[in-house]
Write a structure and sequence with these properties.
Radius of gyration: 19 Å
Number of helices: 6
Oligomer: single chain
Order of helices and strands: HHEEHEHHHEEEE
Strand content: 15-25%
Helix content: 25-40%
Largest sheet: 7 strands, antiparallel
Number of strands: 7
Shape: globular
Structural class: alpha+beta
């Protein structure tokens, strides 16, 4: 009986290793087809780990640097779809990503104007380039792991989002992940 136990234990450990959850970086790379060779130039993650109720208020900003060849291949793929929009991102769309309407309805903005709130939101991520493309994905819950919808426009504030911005001059992809739950 013992000779059979060792192979069973080893295969169980190997299978458990294959089933390790994806890191935030792996999820983002997979979602946007960012090659493994792309360097992470910046990564800000809060909270880094799940609490009692998951990762409430998740904020991730990652910037990936791509080689010219990898960036060209990525832009060819995105241009083959109609799921990416040219920059700049409309102010109304940014306001919906920032959740300004929801915050105002909840009474949590004090005397701040919409422009001030939008400015504060912009400061939480790297500046967007003057030219390039962007894409917004939403899930409604569990933004990292639930199925997502690509959104061309936003008519209302969203519960969560993934915003990707491609900068053709710097050969970078900036991805912002944010939740309001």
């Amino acid at each position: 009986m013992r000779p059979l136990l060792l192979p069973v234990l080893l295969s169980s450990f190997a299978l458990a290793g294959c089933m390790a959850p994806e890191t935030d970086e792996q999820v983002i790379r997979r979602q946007y087809g960012i090659p493994a060779a792309a360097r992470v130039l910046m990564a800000q993650v809060s909270p880094a780990e799940a609490g009692w109720f998951g990762r409430e208020g998740l904020k991730i900003t990652m910037v990936f640097g791509l080689s010219e060849g990898d960036f060209d291949a990525l832009t060819r793929r995105l241009k083959a779809t109609s799921q990416w929009q040219p920059l700049p991102i409309p102010e109304t769309t940014l306001a919906h990503l920032a959740g300004i309407r929801r915050a105002r309805a909840a009474g949590g903005v004090g005397n701040s104007t919409d422009q001030q709130l939008l400015g504060q939101f912009r400061q939480t991520m790297p500046p967007h380039p003057p030219i390039g493309w962007y894409q917004i994905r939403t899930a409604g819950t569990n933004i990292l792991h639930a199925p997502k919808t690509v959104r061309d426009t936003l008519d209302t504030d969203v519960n969560d989002f993934m915003l990707a911005v491609l900068d053709p001059q710097q050969h970078t992809v900036m991805v912002r992940v944010s939740t309001n739950y």
